[in-house]
Design brief:
two-stranded parallel sheet; histone binding; mainly alpha; 8 helices; ATP-binding; Helicase, Ruva Protein, domain 3; Tat-binding homolog 7; P-loop_NTPase
């Protein structure tokens, strides 16, 4: 990279390359972490070499790698919200001959809380397979080659619902999702309490509730508080 500069080095899943060092860790692995730290913060200036690392487990990275001078900036990319999920779904169905309607896409975007981009792609793929299975059920009952007409395969709402019941999004595999819209049958029981809670939170942290206030720039050195409601 030094010889080919300017250059960019990208480490995907960097937590596997530089995990937290401990006494139980293999000495060879600890040596790799130490070498990486020395290369990123040694006597020689990196100059025009930019190092980027990506991980889903920020707590598993060695803390020495996150201090200034090594990785100077940390960018957090959360899971897509409903609006972003709707745009992702539109991209995946844009080339379909009979794409689903806007109303169905909005319903899917609302129901796919906790889905990342790859999960939404898998949802569309599984929905197509469900539509194929519904249109041509005989392909799963014979080993003979069949001549199929792809234009006859139409993906409907029930295909997406069946696909969503089969797929488990990545974020739900490690822990259950707690950020989900209140179901209609729970509104009479929990609706008033939830509204009181939102009003109390909006009075304390208006930038966390009001989308227009969320764009306010916070001065450097001031961290926005995070609150966990249990």
């Amino acid at each position: 990279a030094q010889q080919k500069k300017p250059s960019i080095i990208f480490f995907d899943e960097i937590d596997g390359l530089a995990p937290v060092r401990s006494m139980k860790q293999d000495q060879i692995h600890a040596s790799i972490v130490s070498t990486l730290l020395a290369l990123m913060d040694g006597l020689d200036d990196r100059g025009e070499v930019i190092v980027i690392g990506a991980t889903n487990r920020i707590d598993a990275i060695d803390p020495a790698l996150r201090r200034p001078g090594r990785f100077d900036r940390e960018l957090f990319f959360p899971l897509p919200a409903m609006k972003e999920r709707l745009e992702i779904l539109k991209i995946h169905v844009a080339d379909w001959e009979s794409p689903p309607g806007e109303e169905l896409l909005e319903l899917l975007a609302e129901k796919t809380t906790g889905y990342c981009g790859s999960d939404l792609r898998a949802l569309c793929t599984e929905a197509v397979l469900q539509g194929l299975r519904r249109t041509y059920p005989q392909i799963y009952r014979t080993s003979n080659r069949l001549l199929l007409d792809p234009q006859r395969v139409e993906v409907k709402k029930r295909d997406f619902m069946e696909a969503s019941s089969i797929l488990v999004p990545s974020s739900h595999r490690a822990a259950p999702s707690v950020s989900r819209k209140l179901q209609p049958y729970l509104l009479p029981l929990l609706g008033p309490a939830l509204e009181d809670l939102i009003n109390a939170v909006s009075a304390i942290f208006p930038q966390g509730i009001n989308a227009s206030l969320a764009k306010i720039r916070v001065a450097k050195g001031i961290n926005r508080p995070r609150m966990l409601v249990t």
